[in-house]
Amino acid sequence: MKTDIFHILSLLLFLTIGTSVLSQESVSAKIVAKVADNLIDAKAVAQNNETTFKDDYSYVLFSLKKGAQGNYSKNSQSGKFSLQSGEEKALASLKINIQKEEECKIFLFIRKDDALISKDSVIIYAAEKEKKNEVIAETDFEIKGIVIEDVITKIGKDFHDYFYQEYSNSGSQYPFVINIKEKPYFGRSSIITVEIEGQNVYQFLSKPDEDFLRSSVKSALEIISQFAIQRKLLYKNNRI
């Protein structure tokens, strides 16, 4: 990633259209992070604080690490889960190497359908900086330009790389997560899908051809641009 990205991406806006405030449902998100031998062990934990069964919830746990030279790296996990009455459950974990002069921001978001239910975040500094872990302020909760990939072939990885390159250089960083997914199809082909907030906005059959993949990237970005415009208008109307 580019050097300035950590300052451009202040924090993730993972709020969906029309439900951009925390739900009153009593499911809480918590990040449990420990550092030992320059290795961060971060766990995503969900707690059901009610006596009713909770089902069909989803989570995203991801990290953004700033290196000593200003470079950036990311890591993420996502999935669905359910909770019994009063249950506390570990959802996922990330193991991140952290060296001198590096810092890492970790975020956890829990959603039910299109509503953000709960969130947590933490900043971890390398021990050499002699700073304590910090909770990220609520005012920082807006990050843009996040792309998460879940691909299974080299073609899928190439599409993700071309997409991220074009997206990063486009000057348009949207306040929502873009998911690039891939699933197998007949023979050696696969289906590559671009999803936003659970919606399939672009899909195509893969082909081992760079020009075709770059053309697909442009088509996807055009559709995402229109999606962002409609999303913004709907968001404004719902706030009136």
Task: Describe this protein's structure.
- This protein is globular.
- The protein is an alpha+beta fold and 240 residues long.
- 21% of the residues lie in helices and 42% in strands.
- The model is unreliable at 1-24 (pLDDT under 50).
- Helix 2 (154-169) packs across helix 3.
- It starts with a helix and ends with a helix.
- The chain has helices at residues 5-8, 154-169, 210-239, and strands at 27-36, 39-48, 54-66, 72-83, 88-97, 103-112, 115-125, 147-150, 178-184, 190-196, 199-205.
- It has three helices and eleven strands.
- Strand 8, helix 2 (154-169) and strand 9 (178-184) form a beta-alpha-beta unit.
- The chain has two domains: 9-140, Immunoglobulin-like (Sandwich); 147-239, Double Stranded RNA Binding Domain, CATH 3.30.160.
- Strands 4-3-6-7 form a four-stranded antiparallel β-sheet, with no helix packed on it. A four-stranded mixed β-sheet has the order 8-9-10-11, with helices on one face. The chain has a three-stranded antiparallel β-sheet with strand order 1-2-5, with no helix packed on it.
What's the arrangement of secondary structure elements?
Elements: H1 5-8, E1 27-36, E2 39-48, E3 54-66, E4 72-83, E5 88-97, E6 103-112, E7 115-125, E8 147-150, H2 154-169, E9 178-184, E10 190-196, E11 199-205, H3 210-239
Parallel strand pairs: 8-9
Antiparallel strand pairs: 1-2, 2-5, 3-4, 3-6, 6-7, 9-10, 10-11
